[in-house]
Every structure is written in C-alpha cells, then in structure tokens.
Amino acid sequence: MKIPKPTDAELEILQVLWEHGANTVRFVNEHLNEKKETGYTTTLKLMQIMHGKEMLSRDDRNRTHIFDAAVKEDDIQKELLDKFLDATFRGSASKLVMHALGNSQTSKEELDQIRQLLDQLEGGK
Amino acid sequence: MKIPKPTDAELEILQVLWEHGANTVRFVNEHLNEKKETGYTTTLKLMQIMHGKEMLSRDDRNRTHIFDAAVKEDDIQKELLDKFLDATFRGSASKLVMHALGNSQTSKEELDQIRQLLDQLEGGK
DNA sequence: TTTTTGTTACGAAACATTTCGTAGATATAT
DNA sequence: ATATATCTACGAAATGTTTCGTAACAAAAA
C-alpha cells in the first residue's frame, strides 16, 4: 500500500491529530486557527479529501464525525525527509544535520541522545 | 531584500547551477532530463520566471544567455530547513537529526565532523 | 413549535505551479 | 542563398492545491 505524500495543508492537519489524537473537524479547525485564519468548511473539505485518500480514518456513527490519522507519523516523516534531503541538500545528510544543529536551540539531553546514536553508528565503521 | 522561497521545480534548477556554476538553459535542461523528461521551453520559461524574481542572474550579451544562481545555497537551505523542521517535525531538531542519521549512510569523516559540532555546542551548556 | 446553531457534502471558484505551443529572430549548415 | 537548427519571449493550457459558498439535514435553544 502506497503512502501518499501529504500536501502542506494536509500535513498541518496530520500534526494536530498526531499531537492530540482522534478529534472532530471543529477541534482541528480551532487549532489551525491559532496559527492562521482558516474557514471551517475549508478544514472540513480537506479532511474529507484526506479520508478519501485513506490518510485519515473516520468514525461516522454519530452526526459529528471523529477523524484520526491513518498514517504513522514516523513513516510520513521518513518519506518527507528523504525527499527533502535529496531536493534541498542533494542527499548529504551530514550537511543537513550540521545546519539543523547549528540553527536551533537543542537541549543537552537531546544532544547527548544524538551523541549516543553517533557512537552506535561509528561502532560499525 | 527578501529571499523568495523557491518552488520544487525552481529548486531543481538552482541545484544544477549551484553544483555546476553559471550555464545555459540547454545545459540545465539536459541535466534535468537525466532525472525526468522535461521540455526545453519548460526549463526556459522557469528560468525566465526565476530571473524575473531575481533568483537567477542573466548574461544576455550573446544570443545564448548564461544564467547563474543569484541566491546563496546556504541561505536557501537554511530557509527551507526552518520551514521543513516546523511543518514536519514540529520544530524538534533532534528528532529530525535522529531520522536523518538513522536512514542514510554517512561516512566516518562526516560523523566525526558532526561529533565536533556537538562538542562545541555542549561546551556552552 | 419555531428559530437558531452546528454539521456534512460537495461543486466550483480562486490561486499557484508547471508544461506546452507558436512566433520571431539569429546562427549554422548545405 | 536557402534551408535547417537553435534560441528567446510569452500567452495560454493543464494540473495541483486551497478556499469558499450553498444546500440539506439534525440538534439544541427559545
């Protein structure tokens, strides 16, 4: 089964559902509105399209439908990252990593975690 | 001066120019064709649009124009990475880095370089 | 009961991006 | 000199994505 690449607007909706779990259109719409004014029916239409693509599941036993992400966060992140890495960094993961760490404020704990992963990877070299 | 976010097709053209330096439409088009069939005038039109946006410079002293990237690779990568990080990983750089290193085959030299950066970053914590 | 509010469905408009076709000019080959 | 190939310019079609408006119905409030 092929995972379709979500569009920008679809990804925003997936983020809300991944973060907060199954929810209504209204809930999702209100979250989106915190970042950017979005009409209710716009969000509804997108979620219906996503359901059509089997990107979202839907419980329609009650009048107010409950939607949930039907694709795994990790899978989508991996898919998008692969494409982004190629398109933007010509496949150089280290360049991307250097940029990412250079910019952001990442906690000591997270840096340690990355260091552990490095140890693990370099173990085999 | 505002850097406009390049579209996917525009980014592919920038990659060719960043990698190979100033060149003709034909050269760029032939490179793009290695990955995906693209009509000559399609590439031409895109490069004209990009020139209009000041994303490319153009030397039109001769009939065959020579185009070059007018935006810095690092700047565009930073801009795109920031947006990608927010949209896809909700801003968690460490999660992105773990994914990126987990997937790819990165050389020992590159891993060491990343480790150095970690040392440097953790120095201040 | 009647009105108001909230919900889904969905066509169509609006907008963004990519692709193509044609005209006109210049260079190159015959 | 003529034909052929190559190049730019650019409008417009094709495609993809997002937003909006309206209809139909159900629920809740007055």
UniProtKB/TrEMBL annotation, chains A, B:
Pfam families cross-referenced by the UniProt entry: Penicillinase_R (PF03965)
Annotated InterPro entries: BlaI_family, WH-like_DNA-bd_sf, WH_DNA-bd_sf
A single GO BP: negative regulation of DNA-templated transcription
Keyword annotations: DNA-binding, Transcription, Transcription regulation
One term of GO molecular function: DNA binding
Protein family according to the UniProt entry: Belongs to the BlaI transcriptional regulatory family.
Name assigned to this protein: Transcriptional regulator
Species in which this protein is naturally found: Solitalea longa
